[in-house]
């Protein structure tokens, strides 16, 4: 089965002279066609965990198995390939290039993926994705003209541009209005139905029931709290 698996991840950062242990033996598994939510207090290490899973950051210990292969031992080229074809990280904020329009920003990652398709085809795919994320009208807008929620729709379209097998979304619905948050959740459910493995960081407890499983990051480790959510009301 295709899966993204973290085993015993450890990550420390230096804060001044003090060492902060952010992840301590953190493990999780995300299968294709699964929608998993990750909660945890601010500063608990959720973003750090997602970046390690996406091959953007190396852990100090533990491994990340991508379909059985340890990505923490990948070369830089292999990491690039992982980010281009397998795992897509949807950042919490920022991330659009100001000099490019929305559709150019969305088409950008595919231009480096070795995809031989012509620019025109990339643009039509980028446009279709903007339509899918509800941002078609913003196609030719510049990032400076976009609201926070609109920026998130463009970022989501961009994260989907390489047709990733796994999508790691870092607080995608934070600061969104109810309607937009519901749009995003519907889209995540549709991606799951198409076989994408989707991991979503969220603090919104009203959303948690939509997930196959709910995980909580606390004191550096990941706990499955699905049962507790189910029993809470
Ligand atoms: N590059 C870094 N250098 C030093 N400390 C960091 C770095 N990245 C994250 N941290 C610290 O690690 C902790 C976890 O951060 P983060 O993963 O962003 O948490 P969360 O996403 O759950 O809010 C925080 O205390 C943060 O300050
Ligand atoms: Mg974070």
Entry keywords:
Rossmann fold; 4-stranded antiparallel β-sheet; 6-stranded mixed β-sheet; binds magnesium ion; alpha/beta; 10 strands; binds adenosine-5'-diphosphate; 233 residues
Write the layout of secondary structure elements.
Layout: E1 3-15, E2 18-31, E3 35-39, H1 46-53, E4 61-66, E5 69-70, H2 76-86, E6 87-90, H3 102-111, H4 119-132, H5 148-160, E7 166-169, H6 178-193, E8 197-201, E9 213-218, E10 221-224, H7 226-231
Parallel strand pairs: 3-8, 3-9, 6-7, 7-8
Antiparallel strand pairs: 1-2, 1-4, 4-5, 9-10
Helix pairs in contact: 3-4, 3-5, 4-5
Describe the structure.
With 233 residues, the chain is α/β, with parallel strands linked by helices. It has a domain at 3-96 and 165-231: Rossmann fold. Helix content is 33%, strand content 27%. It has seven helices and ten strands. The strands form two sheets. Strands 6-7-8-3-9-10 form a six-stranded mixed sheet, sandwiched between helices. Helix 6 (178-193) links the parallel strand 7 (166-169) and strand 8 (197-201). It is globular and about 45 Å long. The two termini are 34 Å apart. The model has no long low-confidence stretch (mean pLDDT 91). Bound molecules: adenosine-5'-diphosphate and magnesium ion. Magnesium ion (MG) is lined by residues 46-47, 92, 170.
Mean pLDDT: 91
* Portion of residues within helices: 25-40%
Order of helices and strands: EEEHEEHEHHHEHEEEH
Shape call: globular
**Beta-strand proportion:** 25-35%
CATH class membership of one domain? Alpha Beta
CATH homologous group name of one domain: P-loop containing nucleotide triphosphate hydrolases
Say which molecules are bound, naming each kind only once.
adenosine-5'-diphosphate, magnesium ion
* First-residue to last-residue Cα separation: 34 Å
Count of discrete alpha- or pi-helical segments spanning 4 or more residues: 7
- Rg, Å, rounded: 18 Å
What would the CATH topology of one domain be? Answer: Rossmann fold
Structural class assignment: alpha/beta
* Total beta-strand segments: 10
Name given to the CATH architecture of one domain? 3-Layer(aba) Sandwich
Contiguous runs where pLDDT drops below 50 for at least 5 residues: none
Order of strands in the sheet with most strands: 6-7-8-3-9-10
Major sheet attributes: 6 strands, mixed
């Amino acid at each position: 089965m295709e899966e993204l698996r973290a085993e015993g991840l450890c990550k420390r950062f230096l804060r001044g002279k003090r060492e902060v242990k952010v992840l301590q033996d953190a493990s999780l598994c995300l299968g294709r066609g699964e929608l998993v939510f990750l909660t945890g207090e601010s500063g608990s290490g959720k973003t750090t965990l997602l970046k390690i899973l996406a091959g953007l950051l190396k852990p100090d210990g533990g491994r990340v198995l991508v379909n059985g292969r340890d990505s923490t031992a990948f070369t830089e080229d292999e990491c690039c390939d992982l980010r281009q074809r397998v795992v897509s990280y949807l950042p919490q904020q920022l991330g659009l290039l100001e000099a490019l329009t929305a559709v150019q920003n969305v088409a950008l990652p595919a231009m480096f993926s070795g995809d031989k398709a012509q620019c025109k085809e990339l643009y039509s795919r980028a446009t279709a994705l903007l339509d899918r994320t509800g941002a078609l009208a913003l196609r030719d807008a510049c990032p400076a003209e976009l609201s926070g929620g609109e920026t998130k729709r463009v970022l989501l379209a961009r994260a989907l541009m390489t047709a990733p097998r796994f999508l790691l979304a870092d607080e995608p619905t934070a600061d969104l209005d109810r309607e937009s948050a519901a749009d995003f959740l519907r889209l995540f459910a549709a991606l799951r139905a198409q076989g994408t493995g989707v991991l979503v960081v969220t603090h919104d407890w009203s959303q948690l029931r939509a997930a196959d499983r709910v995980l909580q990051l606390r004191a550096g480790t990941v706990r499955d709290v699905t049962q507790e959510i189910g029993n809470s009301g």
